[in-house]
Design a protein that fits this description.
Elements lengths: L1 H23 L15 H22 L5 H20 L3 H21 L6 H27 L11 E2 L2 E2 L6 H12 L6 E2 L2 E2 H11 L6 H5 L3 H8 L12 H19 L6 H18 L10 H11 L14 H27 L6 H13 L9 H22 L6
Antiparallel strand pairs: 1-2, 3-4
Helix pairs in contact: 1-3, 2-3, 2-4, 2-14, 4-5, 5-10, 11-12, 11-13, 14-15
Subcellular location: Membrane
Membrane topology: Multi-pass membrane protein
Organism: Candidatus Onthomorpha intestinigallinarum
Length: 396
């Protein structure tokens, strides 16, 4: 087991080094694509599992371990956590927070007679409150108007995007400072729209006066397709939150769904549930799930119709495919080892199980090869180890 765990951790370490290299050597990197050939969410799940396994192992064996081994384990734990932060993996960060909350409450409940148990009940609040504070500060800066007059316009960084706009001068500035026209695009985005949002993000007027107040770094950012100066501040968490805020605001004020990972998921869940209602008992079958979602999206005139997207929720996906009957069988498959072998007493399996049941709320984990292999490998490994420990036959 130690050799397997060591290989797993070293593999992830090498992968994170590749990710950091790509991050440092890519201009304006997309944090979701710095890890090649692998979903950033799936990779984050692997890192969370590794961090959790190492933390449990260190805690349970710290007296027997050599100091240099403890130091090495702590290094890997911190490195993986830092990687989750610099890659702005909200999935990974949220999973780690959930694990800490779960084990803190669990340990506190199991040791109620111990006065120190109160500390474990306080740990979740101590850890979560700073994150809530950070989100609230950023949300206030983003959504609360710097202008005392409220308007029914899209807002970004506290400024109304379509306020104080002189379209003619905006395009004149585009030509004067960047050598671009209103017809030029960065990938699929108009340079006019990028400049409009960038000027707005700095609280400048969208005219020649606003253009004149930009420095060379700002002009480079606009030329590179960056629509908000915050995205160039090298603060990945703030950048990720501001992008989510923009997605929410675009949906609230203009009804935009496409291009928003959060809003798209909500739209897909809604249409998937509507499809489930029409086939609630046995589902639509393995070959028709996507087409049924597509059919429902056409009926609801969803902006996502024609994209061939899945539900992005494993529980909804299973229910749509196999109905309530299939969902019950799926839950039995998931929870059977937990109760039959009392695997909930195994902290390693508890972490593994918690990570997967949470991740399946936002991902079709079993609808891709990487998710299936990851789950089946660790599930089989822990169950087999537990059975061998108890000398139980494999079919018991």
């Amino acid at each position: 087991m130690k050799q397997l765990a060591s290989l797993y951790i070293l593999t992830l370490f090498v992968a994170t080094c590749i990710g950091v290299y790509n991050l440092l050597n890519t201009e304006n990197p997309d944090y979701r694509t710095i890890m090649p050939y692998c979903s950033h969410i799936r990779f984050a799940i692997n890192l969370v599992l590794a961090v959790s396994f190492m933390t449990i192992y260190t805690y349970r064996n710290h007296k027997a371990l050599k100091k240099e081994n403890i130091a090495l384990l702590i290094f890997f734990i911190l490195w993986f956590c830092i990687y989750l932060l610099i890659s702005a993996s909200l999935t990974g960060i949220c999973l780690i927070l959930c694990i800490i909350v779960f084990f803190s409450i669990r340990y506190g409940l199991n040791n109620l007679t111990n006065r120190k148990s109160l500390i474990f009940f306080l740990i979740p609040f101590v850890l979560i409150m700073p994150f809530i504070h950070i989100i609230s500060v950023y949300a206030k800066d983003y959504f609360v108007p710097k202008d005392s007059v409220e308007k029914e316009m899209m807002i970004e960084n506290g400024h109304y995007i379509y306020d104080n706009v002189d379209a003619e001068q905006l395009n004149m500035g585009l030509k004067k400072y960047l050598g671009k026209t209103e017809n030029d695009k960065f990938e699929s985005y108009s340079y006019t729209d990028i400049a409009l949002r960038y000027l707005n993000s700095k609280g400048l007027t969208k005219d020649l006066k606003g253009w004149s107040q930009l420095d060379s770094a700002d002009l480079t950012n606009i030329k590179n397709g960056i629509p908000n100066y915050v995205y160039a501040e090298n603060n990945p968490i703030k950048e990720r939150l501001y992008k989510i805020f923009f997605e929410i605001e675009a949906y609230r004020k203009q009804g935009h769904v496409k291009g928003s990972s959060l809003i798209q998921r909500l739209d897909l869940w809604y249409n998937s549930i509507e499809a489930i209602k029409q086939n609630i008992l046995f589902g639509v079958g393995t070959g028709d799930a996507t087409s049924e979602i597509e059919k429902q999206m056409r009926e609801n005139n969803s902006q996502l119709q024609g994209e061939g997207l899945k539900s992005h929720n494993q529980y909804i996906s299973i229910t749509l495919t196999f109905g309530i009957v299939g969902f019950i069988i799926f839950c039995i498959f998931l929870f059977y080892p937990l109760f039959r072998l009392n695997m909930n007493k195994n902290p390693y399996y508890s972490v593994f199980f918690l990570v997967f049941i949470l991740s399946m709320f936002t991902e079709d984990t079993f609808d891709n090869q990487a998710g299936i292999i990851l789950f089946c490998f660790w599930n089989f490994f822990f169950i087999k180890t537990e059975m061998e420990k108890r000398s139980l036959p494999i079919h018991a």
